[in-house]
Amino acid sequence: MRLSPVFSRTGTAAAGLLAVALAGAVPALADGARPQASGPESGGQYREVFYPDGHPRLVKGKPDKPTPVDHLRASGVATIQKTGPDTNRFVIVIVGDGYTSGQQGAFDKNAGQLMNTLFKVSPYKQYKKLFNIYRVNVDSSVSGVSGDPKQSVKKKTPLGMHFYCDGIQRLLCANDDAANSYAARASSDINEVVAIANSTTYGGAGGPLTSVAGGNASAGQILPHEMGHTTGKLGDEYDYPYAKASGGPEPAYPNVTKAAAASMKKGKRKWYRWLSAKSPSGGKVGAYAGANYYKKGFNRPTKDSIMRTLGRAFDPVGREAMITGFWRDVNPIDSAKDNKATVARDDTLWVKTVPVGVRVAWWVDKKYIKSTVGKKSLNLTQFKLKPGAKHWVTATVKDPTGWVRNEANRTKYMYQRVTWTVRP
Question: Three-state DSSP class for 257?
C-alpha cells in the first residue's frame, strides 16, 4: 500500500515486490509450506515446472550453472497502459530476451498478446485499470535463447534466458538481476517483472520474476497462475508428486487447509464464507482432497481452478485473494483537496479515485449524507454550516464488490477516508 499523509486508512503499509516460493527442500513440503525461493543457480531444488497439458508439476532439478549475460543495451521503453501514477498502481514491466534489433516488432506483438491473455482472466479483467504496464525493448546480438531447441545450444543474450534450467527442459529461467536492471528503466515502483524469451517452445518459470516463451500461444496462461502466488499469496492446488502429508502446521495459504468443510464452518476458518457457493470452473466450493503437492492431507476449495490447472478460472476463494492482493498495493483515492489546513464554509471539497468501481460517500459532522453518494466533489454552501464553531467533513471511498466476503480485509485494504476541518 502506498499512503499519502493526506489520507488515513486502516492497516499497515506493505509495499514492494512480493516473493513467491518456487523451490525448496522436501521437509518444508512435509510441513505444508510452499517450497522456498531460490535462484536458477541453486542446486538440487524443487521447481514448479509448466507443461503444455496445463498441469504444473513439482520437479527436482540438478544444479544449474550460471549463464553469462550480454552487456545492457535497451533500445527503448514503451507504455502499454497507464491509468495513473506508478506510486498508486499495480505496475507490470515486460522485458524481452533473444530478440535482435530487427525482431523488436515480434517482441512488441508477443508482449501485447501476453497482456491480452492476462486481462481475459477474472478478476484481472474487472480490475485492469488498476494496472500500469510498460514494455522494455532489449536488443540482442543473437536471435533466440539457450537450450532451444536442444540443451546443447548456448547463446549469450542480455537476460541470459535459457531452457533446461536446473536440467529441466521446460524450465525457462533468466538472470533476475539483469531483468530487474532493464525493468527499472521503465519504473522505480514495480510489482511484477515478466521476462519474455524469443522462442515458440512452451516453457516458463515463476517467482519474483516470471519467465515465459513469447512465441508460444499457450505460454500466456503461466502469468495469471504465477501472480496467484505473488499477488494473491495462493498455494498450488495440484496433488502430485507426494502421497500423504502428515504433521506440520496449517498452511498460511487462503486456498489450502487441513480442515474438512464442517470444521471450517464451525470454526469460521479459511474459506467458510464461500462454502456451497458456485465456482466459475463448475461445481461448488467445499473441501476437496488433494492440494499443496499431496493427494491426501491437504484440501482445496473446488474440484479445479487456475491454481490446479492452467487455463481454468480462479475459484471464488482465489478470486477474492487476488482482489485483496491488488488493493494491498493500490489506494482507493489517488488524490484529494488538501486537508492539512482548515477549509472555508463555502469551499468545494473533492476526491479523485482510482478508475474502477469504487463507491464514494460523504459525512458532515459525522452525519451520513445519503444524497451525496457517488459524488466526487462536495460544495459546503448547501449545508449552511454555523459560523463560530468547528465542523468536520469526511469522504470515504471503498470497493463494494460482492466478490469479497471478508469484511475485515475490505476495511483494511479496500477502504480509505479523508477528513477536512472547516474553519469556525
Answer: strand
- In one-letter notation, the amino acid at residue 251 is P
Taking the C-alpha atoms of residue 37 and residue 367, their distance in angstroms, rounded to an integer, is 50
**CA–CA separation, 324 and 253 (whole Å):** 13
Q: How many CB atoms lie within 10 A of CB 360?
A: 19
**Measured on CA atoms in the order 300, 241, 229, 92, is the torsion positive or negative?**
negative
User: Dihedral through CA 196, CA 225, CA 112, CA 215, nearest 10?
Assistant: 50
Q: Output the CA torsion 24→264→18→179 (10° steps).
A: 60
pLDDT bucket at 66, cuts 50 / 70 / 90: low
Q: What are phi and psi of 407, to 5 degrees?
A: -70, -25
Contact 275, 317 (CB under 8 A): no
Mean pLDDT of 377-389: 94
Q: Each residue of 13-57: pLDDT tens digit?
A: 222 222 222 222 222 333 333 333 333 323 346 778 888 888 887
Partnered with residue 197 across adjacent β-strands are 97, 213
Angle at 86 between CA 81 and CA 88, to 5 degrees: 110
**Residue-averaged pLDDT of the chain:** 87
223 closest CA partner among 320, 94, 108: 94
The pTM of the full predicted model, rounded to 2 decimals, is 0.87
**Residue 181 φ then ψ, to 5°:** -65, -40
Cell reading at 133: 504496464
- Measured CA to CA, the distance from residue 231 to residue 226 in angstroms comes to 8
Confidence band, pLDDT 50/70/90 cuts, at residue 292: very high
The answer, yes or no, to whether the previous bond of 224 is cis (omega within 30 of 0) is no
Per-residue pLDDT tens over the stretch 69-125:
666 566 789 999 999 999 999 999 999 999 999 999 999 999 999 999 999 999 999
